[in-house]
Design a protein that fits this description.
With 270 residues, the protein is an alpha/beta fold. Helix content is 27%, strand content 11%. The protein has one domain: Aldolase class I (TIM Barrel), CATH 3.20.20.70. Bound molecules: flavin mononucleotide.
């Protein structure tokens, strides 16, 4: 099959019959930092949803397969920075040092296949305590569920009512992102992406639809973006200088009164 053609701006369409994971991409903007090499392909591997709380159950086959297949950089799926940060009780996590050996086996396998191991670190906020897709619905307290955290006590339609976060909760979330980033480095990951998209916690703070706070963590652009900016700054300071750090945004809520493309552009400049 002919190789997909790189488009102006670095975007690339797959050949007919190919998948979006067949598209080559340019190196991350952090070009020059070591994880940008090699960068033949960059699949974003979706939530694997079967890892659970047990570090020994980190199941690397889906990630290892991408590395063997020639991906230059393999990014492990949204990984919880705390137990309550998981989308479902079955999600991958790295909130404890006990999880490091399982992740280290995964990064070693990816590296041995010639690829760079990366990880996406995440907090689901009010979308937490959902059930895995093969169960459906929400995870109740009797199904290993928990009360989700959110900027405001506003539920995502169909999901559990969250508790509005206190200042102490916010400080803990920043500390959890930092600790998970440090553990990622210890486990052998060479690229970190912060998940600020898809309606998860950082996105919930960005969007006026879910952030109805009137303290310093909500309200105007500066308030709603403060948690994302503080998480990025704290993680950046905690990991090696040469290690690339990325962030994933949903650039618009595509809804009246929501987070906008213009705000994503403005935040990206900060
Ligand atoms: C089952 C499933 C799991 C996903 N897991 C993640 C994830 O862990 N992290 C993430 O940023 N996006 C995740 N996504 C979103 C995908 O990365 C992607 O943005 C989405 O499927 C749209 O794909 P496209 O941009 O190639 O059209 C997931 C999507 C699906 C369907």
């Amino acid at each position: 099959m002919a190789q997909p053609q790189m488009q102006p701006g670095g975007h690339c369409r797959p050949e007919p019959g190919g998948t979006l994971h067949d598209r080559p991409v340019r190196a991350p903007d952090a070009a020059g930092r070591d994880a940008a090499q090699p960068h033949r392909r960059l699949p974003h591997v979706p939530v694997q949803l079967r890892a659970g709380r047990d570090a020994d159950r980190v199941a690397p086959a889906h990630l290892h397969a991408r590395a063997i297949g020639g991906a230059g950089l393999v990014i492990a799926e949204a990984t919880g920075v705390s137990p309550e940060a998981r989308i479902t009780p079955a999600d991958l996590g790295l909130w404890s040092d006990a999880h490091i050996p399982g992740h280290a086996r995964l990064t070693a396998a990816i590296a041995a296949a010639g690829s760079v191991p990366g990880i996406q670190i995440a907090h689901a906020g009010r979308k937490a305590s959902s059930s895995p897709p093969w169960v459906g619905g929400v995870a109740g307290d009797d199904q290993h569920g928990w009360e989700p955290l959110a900027p405001s006590a506003v539920a995502f339609p169909g999901l559990r009512m969250p508790r509005a976060m206190t200042e102490a909760d916010i400080a803990q979330v920043i500390a959890d992102f930092v600790a998970t980033a440090r553990r990622s480095v210890a486990a052998g990951y060479r690229f970190i992406e912060i998940h600020a998209a898809h309606g998860y916690l950082l996105h919930q703070f960005l969007s006026p639809l879910s952030n109805q706070r009137n303290d310093g963590w909500g309200g105007d652009f500066a308030g709603r973006t403060r948690l994302t900016r503080e998480v990025v700054a704290a993680v950046r300071a905690a990991i090696p200088e040469e290690m690339p750090l990325a962030i994933r945004f949903s650039h618009t809520d595509w809804t009246e009164g929501g987070w906008t493309t213009e705000e994503t552009v403005e935040l990206s400049r900060r």
